Amino acid sequence: MGRVTAMDSVSVRRVRVAAADLESVEFERDSAELTLQQDVSLAVAEGHSLADVAEASNLTVREVDVLTGTIPVLALLDDRQQL
């Protein structure tokens, strides 16, 4: 391999920044997913219908069931395998 040039240094720095950006986005997604799960569970616990919560969250009723723990995640996976 040859010498490391200024261009290589800039490229490596950009890779590091991109990797850090991706990690940050993944953290934000995980946080948003947890917040959604908590809010869906709270809405259902407050007596809102699964259909209303599903519509508000852009999820299916079955997915709301899974998020609230009403049915196991494996049931949702079984549904998707049948498609």
Main beta-sheet annotation: none
How many distinct folded domains? 1
From the alpha carbons, calculate the radius of gyration and give it in angstroms.
Answer: 21 Å
Distance between the termini: 51 Å
Per DSSP E runs of 2 or more residues, the count of β-strands stands at: 0
In short:
The protein is mainly α. Helix content is 78%, strand content 0%.
Keywords:
83 residues; mainly alpha; 78% helix; elongated; single chain
Model description:
By secondary structure, the protein is mainly α. It has one domain. 78% of the residues lie in helices and 0% in strands. The protein is elongated and about 65 Å long. The termini are far apart.
List the helices and strands and how they pair.
Layout: H1 6-45, H2 50-57, H3 61-68, H4 73-81
